[in-house]
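User: Structure tokens for this complex, please. No commentary.
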Amino acid sequence: MARRVRRGATLQEIAQEAGVSVATVSRVARGIGQVSDDTRRRVLAAIDRHDFRPSRLGRALAERSHGALGIVFPGLSGPYYSEVISGFEEEAVHAEMAVIILGTHLLRESGELVRDTAARVDGLAVMGGVLADGLVERLRDRGDPIVQLAGRPRAGLPTVRTENVAVFDRLTRHLLSDHGYERVRFLGDPDASPDAAYRWQGFAQAHRHAGAGEPAGPVRIGLMQSDGYIAVSRLQAAGPLPRALACANDETAIGAVLALLDMGLRVPQDVAVTGFDDIPMAGLPASGLTTVHQPMRELGMETARLLLRQIENDTQGAVDRVLETQLVIRGSCGCGIPA
Amino acid sequence: MARRVRRGATLQEIAQEAGVSVATVSRVARGIGQVSDDTRRRVLAAIDRHDFRPSRLGRALAERSHGALGIVFPGLSGPYYSEVISGFEEEAVHAEMAVIILGTHLLRESGELVRDTAARVDGLAVMGGVLADGLVERLRDRGDPIVQLAGRPRAGLPTVRTENVAVFDRLTRHLLSDHGYERVRFLGDPDASPDAAYRWQGFAQAHRHAGAGEPAGPVRIGLMQSDGYIAVSRLQAAGPLPRALACANDETAIGAVLALLDMGLRVPQDVAVTGFDDIPMAGLPASGLTTVHQPMRELGMETARLLLRQIENDTQGAVDRVLETQLVIRGSCGCGIPA
DNA sequence: AGGCTGTCAGCAAACGTTTTCAGCGCGAAG
DNA sequence: CTTCGCGCTGAAAACGTTTGCTGACAGCCT
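Assistant:
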């Protein structure tokens, strides 16, 4: 069992020392209610003589509130999570709430961890597709405020996400129609996350719209830079490379670019590559990564806002907030290269 | 003010329903103490009829323990933080403790945030160099268990870190002496973190030992991939490139490699590049990144263990635990290339 | 039968706050 | 001189647990 927490001064002690009641000290400490100047001075003196801070434990119990928001992610590596969390945090501290981050690391035992986290926060944001079906519903039915982030909208579950299908359709058609590439391949796993699924959906849809027939199946890989690198190596070993690679995110795209350069190939002359997210690195490579800009920070902020609102006034209708994304054409798709 | 937390069943209600006292329910719920089988069955029935879970708020107050550990980082992007945190978390859940992560984002107002976090955990791990001087001391003097992670050891502050100076010395001498490179440049900011400072120190020390005179000053950049890319672009614009680049971490090294490839240069034939950390991506590029392996996960785990021990039995002598690192020679330094 | 031991369960005190309610003193209004 | 209202303060009841102590009761040994 854990050792007792820091034993600082208590309301009692300060009260005794200042010759007032605990109620008065509480009022002074929080700067609310009516207290005469004279008393306030005495109490204040006692307070900072002991460097007194009200115990969060006591306060939390009395207020029946943890003063914290939770956010559940599959992991936390990479610019995407980092940005989303940062936005979420910003809104949280703005509301004087702490943030508890839970990276499930895709573990099997994550159920218990999530339950545990839910028990220490006033509301929970959950990334779509990371939790076993039913778990989220069970928490919501228990009365816990919950918001889904970047997930497939479900009945009675407020959701915040970004537009994926249409923009990936446009991106793919740019490759197919504008550039006339014939063999375009999708790098990413539609089963790994709702976002990836939507992107794959847009990819397939574009093929049909462009009259390009059924696309080749997705190359199922993770979302790290190394996954992109490895995918390209394998693809090359297996036969002639596609003319273009539409990657599920920027990191894998950059990994792919690196692999291609390593093979002595040129991007986009030999193989075109596109990404998704528009991370800081995307603008840098000589070719400039063609990608989709999505408001990651805003995504986090809006999620936090929705959650806070839900905590505040219980009732919350079904919400499905879809943030806009934007196609960013740079050079890696082939634009700017004399045909 | 936050809405009241989920209103689940309470010990009282369960007790009443099962016809026993709250003490008995508490005992059954936690599986401790002596309870007859008959009573236990009745209580258990009532418990899961209501899906009862003891309130963390009440429990925390009674036990005077938050059941949580805190960890303070400058940010949380990148494989390094991700791995360290993951190790830290593993030890924490093993001890049935939750983890609260605070990314200061290098903000000015972080002082208040840290104080706030310290007030909701039983112990705090702080990354070296991210907090204003004095703040850590103030917290420790207040009685909060604290462990420093990857920092410059200080009196009375248990510290866990990895070996940097000697290994960076060896790495640099490999470049200087074994390969005979004359102009080697350090990419990283010694003032940004203790680790970077130690690496720079090893870099400078190697120059003296190798009789190579004073090294050129560090190219002060951040730790992201894009920083490495940009640094190389600038360096090239400013004049002839160095023969080798010793980067403060793998991400900047890979950014540098990408920039060099983009310019049509070859690694290591034209410019050699080395990194630090040995992230998954390091082994992939054709040249194979020469780097230093450091046990990031173990670093996090050991930090958590030390913190837990400090929470358990108050007294804790000065500890300065230094984990071993290992030079990893791959191709990007020039090895394996016929001279 | 009387004492002893051991099992089981409840009472009540803590834990450190917030917040409601009532009371007190005092000046102003009637 | 009452009465009212107002500003200030304190007592005490929550909030939901854990845990030390006490007592009832049963079985067993002398």
